[in-house]
Design brief:
two-stranded antiparallel ribbon, 1% strand, 15 helices, mainly alpha, Farnesyl Diphosphate Synthase, Polyprenyl_synt_CS
């Protein structure tokens, strides 16, 4: 399949998902209006915060589904939209945990309601509390309705139960990963590389890759072996993707990523880079700079220089390549048809291509 065909297929899948989400939010707006303007406004804010993403998780569902021979694209789009709504719930709540008020360059749910309150003359601490309170409500709505979208897919009986179980497992392990991430941020002893990898597997890979791929395979009627292979692929490619994302957060091209390379350093984000670096004496030269909210560009360059010199960048790049290669190995057995390898080869290549 050439690049033009890949783009056409991706666009077609996204259009299916967009229609499902548009219908869901239209119905929710109609219901909310009966309960008053403030509640209707909350749903409008939630819809804005669910818009504008790459719809990556629904694409994983539909890629697995179609590559295994599935043809009911409406059902697949509903299951994909369920994972997208789960993603919305998790990032809304994650922003509350991180006390962030901006997402994708604009106010998130917390920020929107904080700004409404400050405009009304409410003091900032109270306004921020109001914003985060409303965000918790919005995240709860998105979380619950992710399950409802599976109910609207048209599947029933044992198949619906299995899809609910996959979504439940994705949420269950993601919550564990979030808990470990929170604990890492306050723990005196830095986490090890293995602990970081396990946290990223739980927090991100489980609901972004492993769960959506398993759901698409189950919906298509894939064999237990095919489902297991795609799940393994999802876990390993998800870990590789997150390691690369953390690398780009420090060493990336801001023009290409749209993300500052100072944010993770100012936050003191626990990543494979940090876990590798803290074991080297030279890290002590910059350890007092890491995690400073007022870190300057020059200080950020000093940290990057140390990470380069002690080999932390090379270590993380090699680890990402290793997990991407493991992911590919999960696809090359006899349990999966060639259509699956054709479908996911570009994803492995894209992850590997982001490393340098």
């Amino acid at each position: 399949m050439d690049t033009h065909d890949l783009v056409a297929v991706s666009d077609r899948r996204q259009q299916h998902v967009e229609r499902v989400l548009a219908a869901f939010f239209s119905d929710s707006h109609y219901r909310a209006k009966a309960l008053g303007a403030p509640y209707a406004a909350l749903w409008q804010t939630l819809e804005r915060n669910a818009s504008g993403g790459k719809r990556f998780r629904p694409r994983m569902v539909m890629a697995a589904y179609e590559s295994l021979g599935g043809t009911d694209l409406d059902a697949a789009a509903h299951v994909g939209a369920a994972f997208e709504l789960l993603h919305t719930a998790l990032i809304v709540h994650d922003d509350v945990i991180d006390r962030d008020f901006v997402r994708r360059g604009g106010p998130n749910v917390s920020g929107s309601y904080r700004d409404i309150a400050t405009t009304a003359g409410i003091p900032l601490p109270t306004a921020e509390h109001r914003g985060m309170s409303v965000a918790i409500i919005a995240g709860d709505l998105a979380l619950f309705n992710s399950y409802r979208l599976i109910d609207r897919s048209g599947v029933d009986g044992l198949l619906r139960t299995r899809l609910h179980d996959i979504l439940d497992e994705a949420m269950f392990v993601s919550a564990a990963g979030e808990l470990y991430d929170v604990d890492f941020s306050i723990r005196a002893e830095p986490p090890t590389v293995d602990e970081i990898i396990e946290m990223e597997a739980l927090k991100t890979a489980g609901y972004s890759f492993e769960g959506p791929l398993a759901a698409g395979a189950v919906l298509a009627g894939g064999s237990p072996e095919a489902i297991a292979a795609l799940s393994t692929f999802g876990r390993d490619i998800g870990i590789a993707y997150q390691i690369v994302d953390d690398l780009l957060g420090v060493f990336g091209d801001e023009g290409a990523t749209g993300k500052t390379t100072l944010g993770d350093l100012r936050e003191g984000k626990r990543t494979v880079l940090l876990a590798h670096a803290v074991g080297h004496p030279q890290w002590a030269e910059v350890s007092d700079l890491f995690g400073r909210p007022d870190l300057t560009a020059e200080e950020g360059d000093r940290i990057r220089t140390v990470l380069e010199e002690i080999g932390s960048r090379r270590f993380a790049e090699a680890l990402a390549r290793d997990f991407a290669n493991r992911a590919w190995e999960a696809l090359v057995g006899d349990d999966l048809p060639g259509t699956v390898r054709e479908e996911f080869r570009p994803i492995v290549a894209a992850v590997l291509g982001r490393v340098r």
